[in-house]
Amino acid sequence: MIHLKGIEKTYPSRSGSNPVSALTEVDLEIKAGEIYGIIGRSGAGKSTLLRLVNGLEAPSSGEVWVDEKEISRLGEKDLRLARTKIGIIFQHFNLLWSRTVWENVAFSLEVAGKSKGEIREKVSELLERVGLMDRAHAYPSQLSGGQKQRVGIARALANNPKVLLCDEATSALDPETTASILQLLRDIHRDTGITTLLITHEMSVVKSICQQVAVMDGGRIIEQGRVADVFKNPTHPVTKQFVRQTENEEVADADTVGTVVHVRFRDFASAWKRLSEESTARGVHIRVLAGSIKPSEAWTFDLEGGRENVAQILDLLKETAVETEVIAGVQ
Ligand SMILES: Nc1ncnc2c1ncn2[C@@H]1O[C@H](COP(=O)(O)OP(=O)(O)OP(=O)(O)O)[C@@H](O)[C@H]1O
């Protein structure tokens, strides 16, 4: 769905010194339906990469393909059309402050030339989706950060995009609100299968929502793969640092912990039944990061909940599974 081939991006210098190389030899393929995370420190090149994907910037060389169109070569009219199929949410929401919640979401539908009836129906469906129907006539200044981001998400989805780009979408939010926004993005992905590309500097965000991840540093992709694999075997020092970041967060938060675990079952169906009953009873959220019903294949779960409760679910896994290996978080 999104394919970057041999990308180089150089900016002319701002002060007359050497040009700035923002991206070097970037190759990236994001398949339809994936949630893909790009993580990197400040200046790594994440925003530049995102701007290439929605055609706000052109690469100095290489190709950017989105939904089988070479974005970097489209004329203005075709690019505008292609952009309506790319929704984007921003760190600072970028809402229209003089318009209500309803009008913010309606705006991109008006621009796309939809009829009044279509707009009414779509806006109401979207506000219902993001849980903001009761705030439809409020102005952005009257909303909390999480509510503003919900408006941003509704607006991004207005034209039924095929791709959703999230630009540090939770970086301005507190941890609790971050969790609720990530949950909303997960639900939307589950219901629509929309291809989602998320850039962040927080490994906990990647761990909580992404299936695949690319780590960027100095304009290059230094490591990429399945999130579970990258967590298990980070090879580059920068990746190791990001993985440690989530472990430290877990230690810092004594009440809620997350643990990624590989498990192989003899009889998946009966093990899963017991596991889901026990985890519901203990308030532990189990998220499947990878797995298949083939008995020979291992599953990767992310267990999230109170420290004691997660430890109990881990004990249960060790008891019922043929093989259990904790790859991140509490043992
Ligand atoms: N318009 C521009 N003109 C000149 N240099 C730029 C421009 N935009 C970005 N850069 C440079 O390109 C490099 C990559 O920047 P980019 O904003 O893509 O990184 P980032 O990973 O998104 O960082 P941050 O999280 O701080 O935004 C940096 O060295 C930055 O200074």
Automatic annotation (TrEMBL):
It comes from the Bacteria. Residues 2-243 form the ABC transporter domain. One of its GO terms (molecular function) is ATP binding. This is D-methionine transport system ATP-binding protein. The lineage of its organism: Bacteria, Bacillati, Bacillota, Bacilli, Bacillales. InterPro entries: AAA+_ATPase, ABC_transporter-like_ATP-bd, ABC_transporter-like_CS, MetN_ABC, MetN_ABC_transporter-like, P-loop_NTPase. One of its GO terms (biological process) is amino acid transport. Belongs to the ABC transporter superfamily. Coiled coil: none annotated.
